[in-house]
Specification:
With 146 residues, the chain is mainly alpha-helical. The protein has one domain. Helices cover 54% and strands 7% of the residues. Strand 1 and strand 2 form a beta hairpin. The chain is globular.
Length: 146
């Protein structure tokens, strides 16, 4: 089953295994890291777009979760970085990470996860843009390309 906003639903096989692995990685985070992710998820709900894999195991929610865990593990996870990342993908600037992530569709969530993975492994430059008071990602067009 596929939905244009959520993407395909992770029901069986490899998809299901990926969700279980992501849940295991979440469970292994430190308490303050899990609390940060839960706070972001709560803020997404306030905007009417859940990112919880408990209620629906979709491609969008998996990719957002994957990206957030990569940011946490890179020690670069904060609200401004998340809103800046989402702005670079969507072209819309939200005031909160919850609002920004909640409005990512499956395709944008995939881009978010790719950039977050690159940040985790130091393959993505991050620069501060003084004119917009946000982060910029100068080499994002090369991230994930072979």
């Amino acid at each position: 089953m596929t939905d244009t906003f959520e993407g395909r639903i992770y029901e069986v096989g490899v998809d299901r295994s990926c969700v279980l692995q992501l849940q295991s990685e979440f469970d292994s985070l430190r308490p303050h890291q899990r609390a940060m992710l839960k706070n972001i998820a709560t803020r997404c709900n306030e905007f009417g777009h859940s990112i919880s894999l408990d209620s629906l195991k979709s491609h969008r929610r998996y990719q957002i979760g994957r990206g957030l865990i990569d940011l946490i593990l890179s020690d670069n996870c904060d609200e401004l970085l998340i809103t800046s990342l989402c702005h670079s993908i969507q072209g819309v600037l939200f005031k909160t990470a919850g609002g920004a992530l909640g409005h990512l569709d499956a395709e944008c969530a995939e881009q978010f996860a790719v950039i977050c993975r690159a940040i985790r492994w130091d393959d993505q430059d991050i620069v501060w843009n003084t004119s917009t008071d946000s982060f910029g990602f100068p080499n994002k067009e090369t991230v994930g390309k072979q």
